[in-house]
């Protein structure tokens, strides 16, 4: 009820601390929506180019594909960690003063005594920043996992593409691919795309 009333009338029926807590949670929801909308918009661009599209076989497209993969993993990870941190803040807010067990309240106070109160903007900002830091650190390995491969040779266009986008029999394209770097300790060395 407080959640709904904070949308309709910011000062009706709820204490200022609960309104502040819901406003903090709204920041999480806005950031999560922004992350998800960004991933969806990038996916629209990525999926608009089919296998036979002329741009598909360019170096610019393979660079976009690599950046798309890295960025969507980072942004989706940030969205997930924001959701986790929002749930943790909600849990701390709802169970902070309502615990009747002395062991759980002492555990709670010892773990969270140096952190700001969960119904404050500083707690929300701390949780948002920590979600972004964890996402960036977790995505660093992914950003170095693949490299662009160019063999420098021209290859005939795939037979399924002949007749699409003005491709003709005998047309040649330069092949690009994305593969794992040689230093990556993995058994698969074949190109993934291309």
TrEMBL record:
Positions in coiled-coil regions: none
UniProt keyword annotation of Magnesium present: no
One Pfam entry name: 7TM_GPCR_Srw
Organism placement in taxonomy: Eukaryota, Metazoa, Ecdysozoa, Nematoda, Chromadorea
Keywords of the record: Membrane, Transmembrane, Transmembrane helix
Superkingdom field: Eukaryota
Protein name: G protein-coupled receptor
A Gene Ontology term for the protein's cellular component: plasma membrane
Transmembrane segment boundaries: 28-49, 61-84, 123-141
Organism (species): Pristionchus entomophagus
One GO molecular-function entry: G protein-coupled peptide receptor activity
């Amino acid at each position: 009820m407080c959640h709904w009333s904070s949308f309709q009338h910011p000062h009706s029926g709820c204490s200022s601390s609960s309104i502040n807590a819901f406003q903090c949670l709204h920041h999480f929801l806005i950031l999560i929506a922004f992350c998800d909308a960004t991933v969806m918009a990038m996916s629209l661009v990525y999926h608009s180019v089919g296998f036979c599209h002329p741009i598909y076989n360019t170096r610019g497209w393979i660079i976009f594909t690599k950046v798309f993969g890295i960025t969507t993993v980072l942004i989706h990870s940030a969205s997930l960690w924001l959701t986790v941190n929002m749930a943790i803040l909600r849990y701390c807010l709802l169970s902070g003063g309502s615990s009747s067990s002395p062991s759980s309240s002492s555990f709670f106070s010892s773990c969270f005594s140096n952190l700001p109160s969960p119904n404050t903007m500083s707690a929300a900002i701390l949780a948002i920043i920590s979600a972004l830091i964890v996402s960036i650190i977790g995505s660093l390995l992914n950003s170095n996992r693949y490299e662009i491969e160019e063999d420098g040779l021209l290859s005939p266009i795939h037979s399924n593409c002949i007749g699409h986008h003005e491709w003709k029999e005998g047309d040649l394209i330069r092949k690009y691919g994305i593969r794992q770097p040689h230093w990556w300790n993995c058994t698969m060395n074949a190109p993934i795309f291309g």
